[in-house]
Amino acid sequence: MQFRPDSPIPVSSSLAPVLEPEQQSLYQGVLKTLNEHAIPYAVSGAFALQRHTRIWRVTKDLDLFLTAEALAPAMELLRKKGFYCVMTDPVWLAKAHRGPFFVDLITGMSNAALVVTDSWMAHAQPAPVLDVASRVLAAEELLVSKLFVIRRERFDGADIAHIVYGTRGQLDWERVLALVGDHWELLLWALLLFRYVYPLQTEFVPLPLWAELLRRLVPELLQPNPSARFRGSLVDDNMFAIDVNEWGLEDLLTQYRSRRLREIGQAALTPDCFAEKDENKP
């Protein structure tokens, strides 16, 4: 979500947001449709954050994670139910609309560094969402899904800290490491932020995890890899645009996205893929 300079900054709270009746009906309709046809999904966003941290936030949409393979049948079902569906970006995002409200159907991160897989669905937890039996993203996947939301206009570092705090660190950290893969340095950075914010809860991050992350880091500091690649565009393609456009550094974002498009059968992005501009891109 982007905020204009004159928009109020949201304040964290345990107070549940009040949804418009049409908005709630849309969310419930999407969830019921996917349930009726056994389309695997996991609720993320504000509803998952509340489950794992007890923090509510005002939400303008319902975030559903699902695999790329499940996206097309999900969109077809929703179209038949009267929803207007649009593929906003085949790399990671589609939307289901009815009136002014919508649901985001998310298959990964916009930079294609992280992709939703069947394991995300398998680890999702049964939970009611707006009185509909649903499945909510596990804390491990929720944490990992926020690691790249570190742009100038949106930063989810506080969410990650709250996930660790809210779960008291009772996470499957081995799975977290497996999920982040080559991007473990972002995990280390996020956990250092947690440690700074909650010094009395340092034990929520187990010592073996700190040891493992530092074991990986120290050799990189002592002997940097001469073939290491510039990764700024994966973090924020706007703020690091000068590096790519004027300083000639590698555009890893385009490479990641092109590879993902090939994986899902899209040779290249075309204007038809972007029926609307999305302002919620991580």
Give a nutshell description of this structure.
This protein has helices at 21-36, 45-53, 68-80, 118-122, 139-145, 157-166, 173-180, 184-197, 207-222, 232-235, 241-245, 252-263; strands at 42-43, 61-65, 84-89, 93-98, 101-106, 125-129, 132-136. It is α+β, with helices and mostly antiparallel strands.
Order of helices and strands: HEHEHEEEHEEHHHHHHHH
Tell me, what's the shape? globular
Mean pLDDT, to the nearest integer, reads 91
The span between the termini is: 9 Å
Total strands: the figure is: 7
CATH architecture of the largest domain: 2-Layer Sandwich
Specify the CATH class of the largest domain.
Answer: Alpha Beta
Main pleated-sheet profile: 5 strands, mixed
Q: What structural class do you assign from the helix and strand content?
A: alpha+beta
Strand fraction: 5-15%
How many helical elements? 12
User: How many structurally independent domains?
Assistant: 3
List the keywords.
alpha+beta, Beta Polymerase, domain 2, five-stranded mixed β-sheet, two-stranded antiparallel sheet, 12 helices
Task: Outline the structure in words.
By secondary structure, the protein is of the alpha+beta class. The chain has helices spanning 21-36, 45-53, 68-80, 118-122, 139-145, 157-166, 173-180, 184-197, 207-222, 232-235, 241-245, 252-263; strands at residues 42-43, 61-65, 84-89, 93-98, 101-106, 125-129, 132-136. It folds into 3 domains: 1-137, Beta Polymerase, domain 2, CATH 3.30.460.40; 148-224, no CATH class; 225-267, no CATH class. The strands form 2 sheets. It has a 5-stranded mixed β-sheet with strand order 1-2-5-4-3. Strands 6-7 form a two-stranded antiparallel ribbon. The radius of gyration is 19 Å and the shape is globular. It starts with 20 loop residues before the first helix and ends in a 19-residue tail after the last helix.
